[in-house]
Amino acid sequence: MDKEVNGILSNYFDLSERQIQCFDQLHELYPFWNNQINVISRKDIDQIEEHHFLHSLAIAKIIQFQKGSRVLDIGTGGGFPGIPLAIYFPEVEFTLVDSIGKKIKVVENISRELGLTNVIPITSRAENLAPNPKYDFIVSRAVTRLNEFWPWVAHRFEKKNKNSLSNGLLALKGGDLQEEIQELGKPAKVYSINEFFKESFFETKKVVFVPNNGKE
Length: 216
Known about the structure:
The chain is an alpha/beta fold. The protein is built from 8 helices and 7 strands; from the N terminus they run ααααβαβαββαβαββ. The protein has helices at residues 3-6, 8-12, 17-34, 48-57, 82-88, 101-114, 146-153, 178-184; strands at 70-74, 93-98, 119-123, 137-141, 168-174, 189-192, 205-211. The chain is globular and about 40 Å long.
């Protein structure tokens, strides 16, 4: 294992021994499962810590989810950003949803291998999810344009806030988002990930926060 790559997370986060062990295991589990079910591009698998683990944890630089919060990850694919966040926030419940059953199989197996009891994997399209439970936050990574995504999730938020941010959507996005946010027609705050992480991969990467109550 490349020690320099494996050290990227610890450059930015104070991880427990248990969390370090989990992320170390992911270095073995994802290549294994990726050979069977392609959930990560071949060129990305060697950069998995930076491009997937650290990228997912950019959300943790914006908010520290409080104990007992519920977070819904829509279009999780092989478990991003949900699995890294579930490792980092062990007292928060993460529901990981994808319409492709093979990808959720990867999520199920990796969660089981890591002993993550706070991950609920579901095979479903976002618009077909049951109306309950409600969630404090919804997270996603490059699923679709915000104006298409928002109608899927607008009715899924808890009314009461228990976190430092208002309940809402935290979307990992890239590039120039001005037009996409104008299309959305709702208040949104954009965080540049390169303010948190120095690696060049993050130069154009953003987190977009869309509060459910319309107030940033």
